[in-house]
Structure formats: structure tokens, C-alpha cells
Design goal:
Elements (H helix, E strand, L loop, with lengths): L1 E6 L3 E7 L4 E8 L17 E6 L3 H15 L3 E3 L5 E2 L2 E2 L10 H11 L6 E6 L2 E7 L5 E8 L1 H11 L19 H26 L4 E5 L3 H6 L5 E2 L3 H15 L1
Parallel strand pairs: 1-4, 4-5, 8-11, 11-12
Antiparallel strand pairs: 1-2, 2-3, 6-7, 8-9, 9-10
Helix pairs in contact: 2-6
Length: 243
């Protein structure tokens, strides 16, 4: 069986299956002695592919753990200049996070009329791809938790309790001003994404990442694909296996 892993800075998603179906999936903590929480002990893994933006130390630790546990090489896939008709806008494509490339490639498999990928994780990334497969570039923004931490750590006199709110009206207390301000920023980003998609004639908006539901509730009209990075990774892994 094939094990696919999407490893972020602290958390990971995993899928176990074959080339045609997913049998089981789960999440894990990179700092845990067992980062594959809930993984079936009886499963026999024949192939391991990773998409990761973790630090080099954490990547090396994860690869060592996987190879020790399953006895097969763990292969990391990185960003590429092009693949299957999808062309990276970065001149130095190796500097693009692997998750962004794999999310775009996952979207490219079934959305060939042009699309936007919004990945709402620790950071929020937005990428535009036209109907010819040309990556038009994108944006990287701080994610919700990153903005909350910044206000807590760098503005000591702003006392507030973080709360997941969807209101975007002006607040009348510090807590409301912060929490509704963060929602207001997200709503403004959503409007910008919508306008860009219309201007660039991109047919679909796809959203993934831990804060995807929040963006959808704030008005992002998008297709929610929680495993978008893993879909791209699976397609690349299958192509590499066929070579």
C-alpha cells in the first residue's frame, strides 16, 4: 500500500491506500513520538511519498521515523518548474513551498478552466492558474492564529480573549475590535480573491487548510477540498511510479 503525507510546520495529514482508492486517513503531530495517530498497525506500506514545508530538522526526524517503522524509503516531492501542462510562475521554482505546488497540481487534475487555490493554514496562500495551466502568481498572508499571536506578543497592552467570530462590524470593546477586525480582514481578502478571479476569467475557487470553514462562513464562494495537497501529491506519485 501507499502512504501519502502532507506535513506542515507542526501537524501532518496522512492517507493510506492504493493507486485507485483511499482506505484510511488521519492526522498527527510532528512533535509526537508517534506522528501517525490512528494508523492501522497491521498495514503493510510499500511506498511513502511526502509533501512538506516543515523545518529541515523536523523533516529529517519524520523521514527517519517513517523509514525505521516501515523499512522503505520515504521520498519527498518538491516544487517543480512544470508538470503535466502546469507551469510554475516562479523563476526560482525551488523556493516555492511544496504544499502550494502540490495543491495547484491537485486542482489542475480536474479544474482545467482556470482556478484559484486558497490554502488557509498557518499562513494563507492564494495562487492563480489560468486555463492554459500557466501559474499567474499569488500571495502569502499571515493566517488567523499567526495574527492572533502577533497581537498577543507584540502589542502587550492590547488585552483580549481570542474568539472565532464572523462579525465584521466595528467593535465596541478591545476583544470585539480585535476579533471582528480579524474577520474584517479575512472578508476583505475574500472580496479581493473574488474580484481577481472575475478579472482573470478563472472559473473556480478551491479552498483547503484548517481555517477553510471560517473563510466559507465569511462568504468565500469556493469548493472545499480538505485533501487538495494530498490529491496533487498522489497524482505526482502515480506519474513517477509509471516512469
Amino acid at each position: 500500500m501507499r502512504l501519502l503525507i502532507d506535513a506542515g510546520n507542526t501537524r501532518l495529514k496522512w492517507q493510506l491506500g492504493n493507486r485507485t482508492e483511499i482506505l484510511v486517513n488521519g492526522t498527527g503531530d510532528l512533535a509526537s513520538p508517534n506522528p501517525l495517530s490512528g494508523f492501522p498497525e497491521e498495514a503493510r506500506v510499500r511506498r511513502i511519498s511526502l509533501s512538506t514545508v516543515a523545518s529541515e530538522a523536523r523533516r529529517e526526524a519524520l523521514v527517519a521515523y517513517l523509514e525505521r517503522r516501515f523499512g522503505v524509503p520515504a521520498v519527498c516531492h518538491w516544487s517543480e518548474a512544470q508538470r503535466g501542462g502546469l507551469v510554475n510562475a516562479y523563476s526560482d521554482y525551488k523556493r516555492m513551498g511544496a504544499d502550494r505546488w502540490h495543491a495547484m497540481y491537485g486542482a489542475w487534475q480536474s479544474h482545467r478552466d482556470g482556478f484559484v487555490v486558497v490554502d488557509a493554514g498557518s499562513a494563507v496562500t492564494v495562487d492563480y492558474v489560468d486555463a492554459s495551466g500557466r501559474h499567474l502568481g499569488g500571495f502569502i498572508l499571515p493566517g488567523l492564529q499567526m495574527m492572533i499571536r502577533s497581537l498577543q506578543q507584540d502589542a502587550a497592552r492590547i488585552g483580549f480573549e481570542p474568539d472565532q467570530v464572523l462579525k465584521t462590524v466595528p467593535g465596541t470593546s478591545t476583544a470585539e475590535c480585535v476579533n471582528q477586525g480579524l474577520a474584517w480582514l479575512s472578508a476583505a481578502m475574500i472580496e479581493r480573491v473574488r474580484a481577481d478571479a472575475a478579472e482573470l476569467a478563472l472559473a473556480d475557487i478551491l479552498v483547503t487548510g484548517g481555517d477553510a470553514d471560517r473563510l466559507l462562513q465569511l462568504g468565500l464562494n469556493a469548493i472545499h477540498v480538505p485533501d487538495l495537497v494530498l490529491r496533487g501529491l498522489a497524482a505526482i506519485d502515480a506519474e513517477e511510479l509509471a516512469i
